[in-house]
């Protein structure tokens, strides 16, 4: 693409996106993005600050790519850089993550600002759905935010990726920032801490490094498992941690596993981590998934029908909440982009990779219908007392197939056929014996009935 074409395509995306999202969103997130460079299928945009950069990356980048793909049938990368940071430098930094900090040339971004993570304003207690899978973690964090968890320090939140650890930790930060504005909060990740430590050593800035940590009232440390990669860093962290801890400063840590399960973690750190409160975030149940989706739709003023919400919650392959919300975003975007009504059938065919492929389970009534059609009799005949062979055989077949293909109990099958559970058991045993004895009629008939059931399932 020639440079001009690409500029034209940003204009095009801008016009397209204007059609799809609210004016408020445009003003807040999109309007101030500027095209800085266009190279081999990569459009680099510049955001005026870190927050807009993060937000656009989290919420709109796939959307923007989709628009481009749709309009030009090309896979275009979209990169967002910070104002004052040259696109090339950002690219270099992304390729070489360890040098990332060197690309920050914006003089407004101080070293300390850079070695911390801005609190995500969206990650609050209000936007977090508390349920069975996370209620202890939620309560512990809420107490910590209010200043009630002094006896339980640190709070160590562990769980698989995408289940809400970072969200909860930032919720504590956001709560404290509003309610106790004088408190000095530092939010950092294991990865940034490692980098900061190495950088401070190289630049002989260890005194500033220590001073910075001395001034903290609340330490929010995300993905602490990563520091086990650096033995010297662990020593330093142990020292900082112990100081904060003995000065009664609140510490919240998140990790993907229990302290003892972090390979190479210093034993002293492991025992410190275990001295406070350890809370786990588990995988959400279907009901929790529904509540999380509904909450998300409400916050973002999106609409998806209840049966689609239920289908997604029941059938999504991944247990991660991040993936769950990702699928919901994709559904919303598709609906808006293609202007189609989103139904269960639509997402089952368009987004099938996200969902478990279940064969439709037939109900007892559907099986009875298939057997009745095959033998040309009625359910009422099967339910009758008749012991005629042309009724008994289909009745036994139906009972056997229901027993083998549905979760129905003997008792509930009995109630369909007006019989007690031992009679039902006899019917099943009879068919099983015939199969064992290679009874040709029974085997062939069952095969044919199974075929009909498969056709019915599709
Ligand atoms: P983790 O840090 O455990 O990998 P995150 O905190 O980044 O997970 O959560 C992933 C995504 O799921 C975020 O967008 C977060 O807002 C959302 N999320 C996770 N759990 C919940 C919840 N219980 N209620 C609302 N949103 C949630
Ligand atoms: Mg996280």
UniProtKB/TrEMBL annotation:
Domain remark text: Domain I is involved in oligomerization and binding regulators, domain II is flexibile and of varying length in different bacteria, domain III forms the AAA+ region, while domain IV binds dsDNA.
Cell compartments where the protein resides: Cytoplasm
Highest taxon above the source species: Bacteria
Subunit structure: Oligomerizes as a right-handed, spiral filament on DNA at oriC.
Region described as Domain IV, binds dsDNA: spans on this chain: 336-458
GO CC list: cytoplasm; plasma membrane
Origin organism lineage: Bacteria, Pseudomonadati, Deferribacterota, Deferribacteres, Deferribacterales
HAMAP family referenced in this protein's UniProt entry, alphabetically: DnaA_bact (MF_00377)
Domain called Chromosomal replication initiator DnaA C-terminal: residue spans: 363-431
Positions of ATP binding: 162, 164-166
Gene source species: Candidatus Mucispirillum faecigallinarum
GO biological process: DNA replication initiation; regulation of DNA replication
Keywords: ATP-binding, Cytoplasm, DNA replication, DNA-binding, Lipid-binding, Nucleotide-binding
Domain I, interacts with DnaA modulators, as annotated region: 1-98
Function recorded in the entry: Plays an essential role in the initiation and regulation of chromosomal replication. ATP-DnaA binds to the origin of replication (oriC) to initiate formation of the DNA replication initiation complex once per cell cycle. Binds the DnaA box (a 9 base pair repeat at the origin) and separates the double-stranded (ds)DNA. Forms a right-handed helical filament on oriC DNA; dsDNA binds to the exterior of the filament while single-stranded (ss)DNA is stabiized in the filament's interior.
GO MF annotations in UniProt: ATP binding; DNA replication origin binding; lipid binding
Pfam families the UniProt entry points to: Bac_DnaA, Bac_DnaA_C, DnaA_N
Family to which this protein belongs: Belongs to the DnaA family.
Residues in AAA+ ATPase domain copies: 151-279
Main location: cytoplasm
Protein name as catalogued: Chromosomal replication initiator protein DnaA
Keyword check for Mitochondrion: no
């Amino acid at each position: 693409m020639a440079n001009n074409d690409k500029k034209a395509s940003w204009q095009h995306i801008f016009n397209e996106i204007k059609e799809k999202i609210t004016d408020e969103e445009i003003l807040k997130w999109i309007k101030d993005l500027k095209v800085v460079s266009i190279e081999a299928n990569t459009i680099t945009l510049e955001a005026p600050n870190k927050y807009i950069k993060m937000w656009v990356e989290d919420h709109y980048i796939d959307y923007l790519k989709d628009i481009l793909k749709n309009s030009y049938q090309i896979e275009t990368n979209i990169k967002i850089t910070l104002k004052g940071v040259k696109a090339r430098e950002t690219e270099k930094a992304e390729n070489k993550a360890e040098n990332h900090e060197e690309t920050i040339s914006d003089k407004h971004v101080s070293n300390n600002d850079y070695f911390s993570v801005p609190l995500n304003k969206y990650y609050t207690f209000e936007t977090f759905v508390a349920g069975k899978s996370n209620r202890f973690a939620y309560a512990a964090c809420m107490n910590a935010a209010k200043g009630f968890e002094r006896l339980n320090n640190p709070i160590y939140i562990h769980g698989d990726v995408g289940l809400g650890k970072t969200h909860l930790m930032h919720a504590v930060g956001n709560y404290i920032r509003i309610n106790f504005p004088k408190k000095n909060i530092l939010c950092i990740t294991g990865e940034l801490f490692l980098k900061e430590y190495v950088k401070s050593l190289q630049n002989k800035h260890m005194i500033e490094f220590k001073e910075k940590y001395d001034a903290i009232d609340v330490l929010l440390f995300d993905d602490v498992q990563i520091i086990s990669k650096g033995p010297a860093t662990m020593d330093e962290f142990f020292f900082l941690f112990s100081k904060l801890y003995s000065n009664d400063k609140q510490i919240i840590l998140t990790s993907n596993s229990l302290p003892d399960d972090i390979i190479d973690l210093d034993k002293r750190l492991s025992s410190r981590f275990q001295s406070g409160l350890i809370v786990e975030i588990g995988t959400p149940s279907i009901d929790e998934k529904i509540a999380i989706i509904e909450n998300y739709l409400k916050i973002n003023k999106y609409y998806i029908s209840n049966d689609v919400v239920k289908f997604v919650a029941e059938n999504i392959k991944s247990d991660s909440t991040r993936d769950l919300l990702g699928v919901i975003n994709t559904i919303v975007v598709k609906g808006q982009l293609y202007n189609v009504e989103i139904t269960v059938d639509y997402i089952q065919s368009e987004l099938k990779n996200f969902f478990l492929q279940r064969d439709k389970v037939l109900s007892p009534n559907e099986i009875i219908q298939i057997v009745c059609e095959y033998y040309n009799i009625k359910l009422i005949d099967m339910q009758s007392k008749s012991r005629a062979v042309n009724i008994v055989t289909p009745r036994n077949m139906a009972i056997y197939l229901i027993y083998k293909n549905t979760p129905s109990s003997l008792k509930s099958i009995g109630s369909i056929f007006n019989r007690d559970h031992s009679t039902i058991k006899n019917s099943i045993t009879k068919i099983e014996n015939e199969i064992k004895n290679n009874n040709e009629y029974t085997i062939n008939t069952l095969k044919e009935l199974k075929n009909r059931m498969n056709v019915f399932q599709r």
